[in-house]
Amino acid sequence: MAKMKTGFPKDFLWGGATAANQIEGAYNEDGKGLSTADMVRFIPKSERNPGEHALDVTKKQINKILAGNVEEARFPKREGIDFYHHYKEDIALFAEMGFKTFRLSIAWSRIFPNGDDATPNEAGLAFYDQVFDECLKYGIEPLVTLSHYETPLHLTLKYNGWSDRRVIEFFTNYAETVFRRYKDKVKYWLTFNEINIIAISPYTGGGVLVEDAKNRLELCYQAAHHQFVASALATKLAHEIIPDAKVGCMLARMTTYPATNNPDDILKAQHLNQMNLFFTDVQARGEYPSYMDRYFTENNISIQKESGDDEILKEHTVDFISFSYYMSLSTSANPTGKQTGGNFMGGVKNEYLETSDWGWQIDPKGLRYTLNDFYSRYELPLFIVENGLGAYDKVTADGKIHDDYRIDYLRKHIEQMKEAIKDGVDLIGYTSWGPIDLISASTSEMSKRYGFIYVDKDDDGKGTLKRSKKRFLRLV
């Protein structure tokens, strides 16, 4: 009789997660081209329209920015926290916290400035060589995302990003380039960060402009199909070039509960969970699930596939499933109660849960539920690659940051991870989001802090960029 697992495995990958466009800065140094993230300006909360995402960008706005007709606008993701020049200091601090892995992304436009260039930018390749070498010096395993919320801007302006099938070839060329360059340094790879976000914010997820679209949903799901094929082809290339490589997909998991036992609420929650898990169904099972047939029909969505696409998806599924988990959601077929939200997600307020400074519902036990749900569905290894608490941190008179609330948040989620392992879930790693304070993906704020390391910078871009420890924390 098999024994119950009682703790984290010895080779468990503890660490932290970041994205190039939120930390690197140096947006125009050493040959880097512009990316879609470089066009996202900071909009103070007081100036946002109701329901407006700070991520929404149109072609008209891009042209104004490129023409220099946006006065006093700030683009925080161009600056990041200047990891480009502080990476040695930052990685040393990660090592001090006991990191076994560091999740980071490669900026595609740092390697191929336009995305469709014939040859790569050597200075960009050399930068990541140095970063990976620094990680390996401390025994930290790099976990690398190929595309994390940024697409070379040229691909958006010329091809409308991932809506154009030709971008598949540009992406696989990029993937092959970095696989060959870093084959002796990087074993763990992710293809697209939170791939489902392309259906919520197509500009963010795929560099797709939708203002002129006849059918917005169709455009988004067509772009997603191109990403599915590209992800499968990249997985194939990784396995060929790096025999021991492990390639994962990555989902923004939006576990949704029914608000009541009303069957209408239960059916709505089931539908929302299916729409979320559709993206991992394709990448882990290798085919489009039948429940999408009705959705596509009722929304006049026709996915254009080329001969061989279905075979590519089926033959090159991922090795593991990674996901972000910050909150659970609650839904009702007839919502009358208090609403809650995050930057992308809404729903009915769950009265059993506390909320963060940004209104996100804190649900540690929901993480255990999510892990069990994932594992029973796919029976593939799981990797939590984003989880953390965004909060307003206050610096006291003595220069300290007492973030016990963050430590409590992490402790409770880690406890539920351990329970899921006891349940039989194959969990291989955990990287907390933003181990060092960084620019918010959704609002471009600096005040939404996740880190164990404080960075002296504010929402207006002012500060020394000095790094300092918060309450000392080791994940192990």
CATH domain topology: TIM Barrel
Count the helices. How many?
A: 15
Q: Rg, please? A: 21 Å
* Beta strand %: 5-15%
The backbone outline, from C-alpha atoms, is globular
Mean pLDDT: 94
CATH H-level name... which superfamily?
Glycosidases
Oligomerization state of this entry? Answer: single chain
Order of helices and strands: EHHHHEHHEHHEHHEEHHHEEEEHEHEEE
Q: Largest sheet at a glance? A: 8 strands, parallel, barrel
**Strand order, largest beta sheet:** 1-2-3-4-5-7-11-12
Helix proportion: 25-40%
Number of strands: 14
Using the 3D structure, state the CATH architecture: Alpha-Beta Barrel
Distance between the termini: 30 Å
Family: Belongs to the glycosyl hydrolase 1 family.
GO molecular function: beta-glucosidase activity
Protein name: Glycosyl hydrolase
Active site: 386
Describe what is shown at a glance.
This protein is α/β, with parallel strands linked by helices. It has helices at residues 20-23, 59-66, 76-79, 83-96, 108-111, 122-137, 153-159, 166-182, 202-206, 216-241, 263-285, 291-298, 309-315, 364-378, 404-422; strands at 13-17, 101-105, 141-147, 188-192, 246-252, 256-258, 320-324, 329-331, 354-355, 361-362, 382-386, 427-433, 453-455, 467-469. The chain has an eight-stranded parallel β-barrel, surrounded by five helices. A two-stranded parallel sheet has the order 6-8.
